[in-house]
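Figure 2 data, in text form.
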Amino acid sequence: MTIKKIALAIFISLLTSLCVFAQQHELKTKREIDSLFIENYQDKTLPAKVLHAEPLYIDLIRDLGARKGEKEWNVGVELVDNLDYDKYEALVEYEWAPINRLGFEVELPFTFYAPQKGVSSDSIPADRLESLKLATQWSFFVSEKMAMTMALGYINEILLSDFKQFGNPLVRGNLYNPFFVIAKRWGQNFHSLIYTGPKIEQIFNQSGLETSFEFNPSVHYMIPGTTNFIGVEFNQTFEHQDFDMTIRPQMRVALADNLLIGIVAGIPVARENERLSAFCRLIWEPGH
């Protein structure tokens, strides 16, 4: 073997070793950064709290394991393509934690409708302020060692009449929605969460109650050293003999330390009238 070939072999060997070392160092650095980020989030001087990636469409009332003084504003918009009309939804919500592990929320959801070509506007639902939504959530189990949190919550929606009938009556019914949440972080970057519970709707001028059951699992991957993530929700509803499911791939990106944006696509799997949808949520944490 010539000296050139020996030198080339040594060079290639060194280059390969350097690449392997660089990859290992980069991986180690990412792990160290992520560990430091989680350690800072789960500050031992504060009440226990686990870092979780929480879904963007089925939004929780407050962070799991919420700490006293936390607060957040959300503004969301959604476009849903239906067979006979387009549905535009908008929401404004404020959530806060008056004490550790207990969160509250007030939300105003609006819905507007536009008929598809050839469809009469009288045959589609009327625009409305859907409800006054009041909610609470209590994280009763928080384990940093197990990287797991469980919570119980309750949403009460005072259902309002559409704008054509607004005030006649003003309140048309009530929606009762207790729910349970369990979330687990697997390692440092993978997250899973299940949000589930019944919905019981009472319309005051009708007899009986309409009951459905929701089961919403989600899986996310959080980018090391950040709160940015990509993931997917599976929103499932069981009502009588009917089953509906929408798959919602999503991502969240931090625009600033206290300002985040979430983008969600909706892909219906078993819905008779709904087609694709798109949802965007802007999250602002004042005083963060």
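Caption note: The longest strand covers residues 171-186.
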